[in-house]
Each structure stands twice: as structure tokens, then as C-alpha cells.
């Protein structure tokens, strides 16, 4: 079977990576109080490329290490490594090349702190979560979600180098939002795919503690998420435009979480999962638009 460029592209989980690098891009723009300088634009562009390459490498490593599980799940049984379109050696070489290129770009043309944070995130997701946490605890997505929540911090670091305490405070607040968002986002999918996870012997929360418990946890995290997303306004990082957008998004998210307690049908789990993706993209878009509007309001 001939390997094509599309097979390598599918190894990078492009839809997942797109959401990751979008939040990183917003982190970059939020780090700049006014219009960026030419130097900041160049650093941001190279930082964006380096972060994207690292995220793509992490996705490929994840598929390499999860090949056995992927083969048993309907959602992932089509992946190129599972169906034999690429070999494990090809995936390893591909992921290694992406990682090396990412680190070279970040170290030489962005800054060392971005490279270190990006590499730590790659290891956190591709190795610590995939190899250990995913198979060890029903809280896997909670603990492991920290690695997936770091892109705004990486983007911020690419622009500022994290020179001041305010850089860390603001960037880590963005990380916190994604960290709290991840469990209700993923558990909605896990409920729908619980039979697959049980078959693959992956201890996702719906498998180990049951669907009703998972639904209650989704509601709890959704309430906490609604509170956390108001913190940018509380600390003066964002203004009324963001507040209005976040309020609407949170009301809809809470409605989904409430309906999840007694959903009308099994597909409602996927409706919440789908909305959660729109929610995060829209929330970060509101942060970005508000950032540019705030000086004029």
C-alpha cells in the first residue's frame, strides 16, 4: 500500500491541532497591548509554526502509542497506522522530524522559554497522558488535560518571553479556562463512545463510574467553567464586549450540561461535544476582539 501525503496529514489530527494553534494564536495577540511591531510579527509567525509542528508531532506520537486502542474503537479504526497505510517506523521518523524542526525554530528564532514549554507540553500529552494517565486513572483527561491547555501560554511566551509576572498571570488564566473546559468537553464524547472505551480497556469516567456520575461531573465542571471565564473581566484583562459574549456562551453551555442530566436521546451527548468546540473557539475570539476594542471603548 502506497503512503501518500494525506496519510501523513491524517497523522497530525488536523482538526484537533487547528483548535490548539488557534488558542495559541489568540495568546500571541493578547500578549501585545497595541499593534505588534515587525519584530513581534516575525517572532509570532515563527512561534506559530513551531507550536503547530510540535502539536502535529504530539498527535503522531499519540497515534503510534495508541495503535492497539485505536484499532478497537470505531472512532479511530480508520487512522492510517491502524489500517496499514503507514508503518510504525514511518510514524516515528515523521514525528521525530517534526519535533526536531519545531525545537530548532523555537530555540534559534523565537526564544528558549517557548521551546522549553512547548517540549514539556509535547511530552505531557504524547507520553505522560498517552502512555500512563490514559490507562491508569478515570481522571486521565482531567490531569492530562493540562498539557492540552498550554497553547495560549506558548503563544504568549513566543511574543513576550514571559518577562513579567503579569505575563504569567494572564497567560495562565487562559490555560485555566481550557483546563476546566476539557473534562466536560471530552466526557460528553466519552459517554457516547463508552462501549468503545470499555472494549479497549481504557478507564474513562463513564466506564469506571457510570454515565449518571459522569453527567453530574459535567454539570459541576460547567458551573466552574462559567465562573472561571469571568475572571478576565474581574482582573481587567477584558471588558464588556467579552463579558457579553462569554455570558451568552456560558448560558448555552450550562443549558447543555443541565439537559445532559436527562438527555432526550443518545445523540445529545455529541451535540454537547460539538457545541463545546464552538464554545471554546468563540470564547477566545471574543477575548481577541475585545482586546482590540477595549482601547476605543
Automatic annotation (TrEMBL):
Which Gene Ontology cellular component terms are annotated?
plasma membrane
List membrane-spanning regions. Answer: 16-35, 41-65, 91-110, 116-133, 140-159, 171-192, 218-235, 241-260, 272-294
Q: Does the keyword Cell membrane apply?
A: yes
Q: Which Pfam families match?
A: UbiA (PF01040)
Membrane topology category: Multi-pass membrane protein
Primary subcellular site in the record, as a coarse category: membrane
What's a single GO BP term from this record? heme O biosynthetic process
Swiss-Prot/TrEMBL catalytic activity: heme b + (2E,6E)-farnesyl diphosphate + H2O = Fe(II)-heme o + diphosphate
Compartmental location: Cell membrane
State the protein's name: Protoheme IX farnesyltransferase
Q: Report which gene this protein is encoded by.
A: cyoE
Amino acid at each position: 500500500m502506497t503512503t501518500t501525503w494525506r496519510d501523513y496529514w491524517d497523522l497530525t489530527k488536523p482538526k484537533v491541532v487547528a483548535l490548539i494553534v488557534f488558542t495559541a494564536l489568540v495568546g500571541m495577540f493578547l500578549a501585545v497591548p497595541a499593534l505588534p511591531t515587525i519584530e513581534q510579527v516575525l517572532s509570532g509567525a515563527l512561534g506559530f509554526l513551531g507550536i503547530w509542528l510540535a502539536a502535529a508531532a504530539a498527535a503522531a506520537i499519540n497515534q503510534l502509542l495508541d495503535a492497539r486502542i485505536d484499532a478497537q474503537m470505531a472512532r479511530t479504526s480508520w487512522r492510517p497506522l491502524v489500517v496499514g497505510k503507514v508503518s510504525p517506523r514511518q510514524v516515528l521518523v515523521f514525528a521525530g522530524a517534526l519535533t526536531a524542526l519545531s525545537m530548532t525554530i523555537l530555540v534559534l528564532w523565537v526564544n528558549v522559554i517557548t521551546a522549553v514549554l512547548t517540549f514539556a507540553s509535547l511530552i505531557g500529552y504524547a507520553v505522560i497522558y498517552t502512555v500512563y494517565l490514559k490507562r491508569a486513572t478515570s481522571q486521565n483527561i482531567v490531569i492530562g488535560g493540562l498539557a492540552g491547555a498550554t497553547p495560549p501560554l506558548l503563544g504568549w511566551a513566543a511574543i513576550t518571553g514571559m518577562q513579567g509576572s503579569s505575563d504569567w498571570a494572564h497567560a495562565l488564566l487562559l490555560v485555566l479556562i481550557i483546563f476546566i473546559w476539557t473534562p466536560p468537553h471530552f466526557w460528553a464524547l466519552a459517554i457516547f463512545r463508552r462501549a468503545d472505551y470499555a472494549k479497549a480497556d481504557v478507564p474513562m469516567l463513564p466506564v469506571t463510574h457510570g454515565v449518571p456520575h459522569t453527567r453530574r461531573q459535567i454539570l459541576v465542571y460547567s458551573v466552574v467553567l462559567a465562573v472561571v471565564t469571568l475572571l478576565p473581566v474581574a482582573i481587567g484583562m477584558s471588558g464588556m464586549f467579552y463579558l457579553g459574549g462569554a455570558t451568552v456562551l456560558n448560558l448555552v453551555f450550562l443549558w447543555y450540561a443541565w439537559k445532559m442530566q436527562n438527555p432526550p436521546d443518545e445523540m445529545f451527548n455529541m451535540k454537547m461535544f460539538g457545541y463545546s468546540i464552538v464554545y471554546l473557539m468563540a470564547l477566545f475570539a471574543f477575548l481577541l476582539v475585545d482586546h482590540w476594542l477595549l482601547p476605543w471603548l
